[in-house]
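job 3f2a | input accepted
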Amino acid sequence: MNKSKALLMSLAFTTVFALTACGSKNNNEASSSQSASAPAATESASESAEAPADDLKAEDGATLVVWESKEFRENMDKVAKAFTEQYNIPVKVEEVNEPDQVNKLINDGPAGVGADVVIFPHDNLGKAVSAGLLLENDYFQDVTTSENSEASVKAFTFQDVLYGYPRSVETYALFYNKKLIPEPPKSYDEVIEFAKTFNKNGQYAMMWEITNFYYAYQFLATPGGYVFGKNGSDANDIGLNNEGAIKGAQMFQKLKSILPMKAADATFDVKKGLFTSGKLALDINGPWAIADLKKEGIDFGIAPLPTIDGKANVSFSGVKGFAVSSFTKYPNAAKLFARFASTKENQLLYYSELGFLPSNNEAAADPAVTADPLVVGILEQFKNSYPMPAIPEMGNVWGAGQAALTDIWDNNKDPKEALDNAVKQIQEANAATK
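job 3f2a | predicted structure (434 res):
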C-alpha cells in the first residue's frame, strides 16, 4: 500500500469515529455537538498522557474474575495471563456473553458472585449506572480520554461521568465470498435478483441473524424509523412504528422469499458454516468474524450494506469496553486490569486475533489496521451507522423488537400491527420503571 493511500485510510478511520458519535445523516436525528479528532500518528500515548499505574496499588491478596463471551475467551485468557505476570494478581475468566453481563451482574453482584470486571456494549451503560453496578473510571480518566477517540469516550460517559475503558468500535457490513459473487450487490433489489439463480441445493444468497434487533434495525431505520428521538435520549418519542419503519418492515418480510427458514435457525454458527463451505454468498456480519474467516482461507471481501429504495443503509454502531463492578472487593486491582486490558498494545492484539476495530487513536492509525482492505468495508458502513441509544430504556427495546420481527417473519404478521404492538410493549415497560 502506498503512503498516500495509508494516510487516507487513517484519516477515514478518524472520520468514522466522529461519525459514530454523530449518527446517521439519514432521517434519524444527527448530533451536531460531537466530533472526534485523533492525535497525529506520530504523537505517542506516553507523550500525550502518562498512566500513573505504578501509583495505584492493588489490595493485598487481590484476585479477580472477568467475564467474557465464549468466542473471545481464548484471547482474554492471554490478556489475563499477561496481567498476572506483570502484577502478580490471579485472574479467572468466566464465560458470559457480553450483551448479557449487565443483567447478570444485577443479580450476581449483590450476591457476591459477580465479576470484578465486565465487558459490554455501550447501550447497556445507562441501565448499569442506574442500577448502581459500576465504579467510575476516575483514576485513569485522563489517560483514557486522551488515548481513545472522543466518540468512544462519550459512549461510556453517562450524565457527564466516565465509567468505561473503551476497547473497540463496531458495526456490521456485507461480507461476500468472491468465488461465489465477485462483486458485492449495491441494493437489496440486486440481492433478490441474484438469489433467483443462486438459491438451490441448500445454497442461500444472503443470511443474517434474522430477528436479532441489532442486525434487523437497518430495515426499519434506513427508510426513516428510529428508536428514540433527540439522538436516542428521549424515551417518550419512539419511532419504530412510523411510516418509514413500517415500509422497512415490509422489505424485511419480502426477503423471506430468498431466505426460506425459521428465524431461530439463522444463527451465527449456522451462517459461518454455510459461508465457509461455499453455500452462502453474502453474510451480514461484523469485524469480530474477520479473524476466523481468514483462518479458514476464504477469499472474501467486505462492503457497505445494500441500499433500500436507493437510500444508504443505516446500521447500528456501538462501542464495547471494560467497566469495574461496584461490588468488587478489590477495586484498585480491578481498575488496573481494566486499564491494562484496554491499552493500545492489547487493542492491537484484539484486532489481530479477533478483528476488533480499536478505539485507541494510535492503534486505529497503526499500519497493521489501516493496510487491511477488509477494514475499509467496515469503515465505509460506519460512515452511515447510528449509535445505539445508551439510556436505560434501551433495555426494553431488544425483546419487544425481536418479538415483532419474529412475528413478521415466521408468522407473516402485518408489519404495522406487529410494530404497533412492539411500541406499546416498550412504552409499558418504560412506564413500569418510572
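job 3f2a | The chain has two domains: 8-170+317-383, 172-316+390-432.
job 3f2a | closed
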